[in-house]
Specification:
Order of helices and strands: EEEEHEEE
Oligomer: single chain
Shape: elongated
Distance between the termini: 27 Å
Radius of gyration: 17 Å
Largest sheet: 5 strands, antiparallel
Number of strands: 7
Strand order of the largest sheet: 1-4-7-6-5
Length: about 100
């Protein structure tokens, strides 16, 4: 179950401004992997360990504003730790493009 927090990042580059003592020199670019992340609730029947094993999965999210976010060929990148008080854990999936 989705607990309520959902994020996605579609950017493919991160730009950093290059400066020197004489002013701004321009910028540099580095590629970044787009991601989808969510805070989920362990409902008791949830296979939390299964999230850690996910590679080459598709994630589809329908947002309240009507947008549909689709991630293809994703893999999980974090270790899922369940918070015992509310039984929630975070999952982040990343993609090559």
């Amino acid at each position: 179950m989705v607990e309520g927090s959902f994020k996605y990042q579609a950017a493919t580059v991160n730009r950093t401004t290059l400066t020197g003592m004489d002013g701004v020199h321009g910028y540099k670019e580095k590629p970044v992997a787009p991601y989808i992340s969510a805070r989920l609730r362990d409902s008791g029947g949830t296979n939390v360990q299964g999230f850690n094993q996910q590679t080459n999965v598709n994630v589809i999210a329908e947002l309240a504003n009507g947008k549909t976010i689709i991630g293809r060929s994703l893999w999980t990148v974090n270790v899922q730790e369940v918070e015992s008080e509310d039984a929630v854990f975070d999952v982040r999936w990343k993609a090559a493009t």
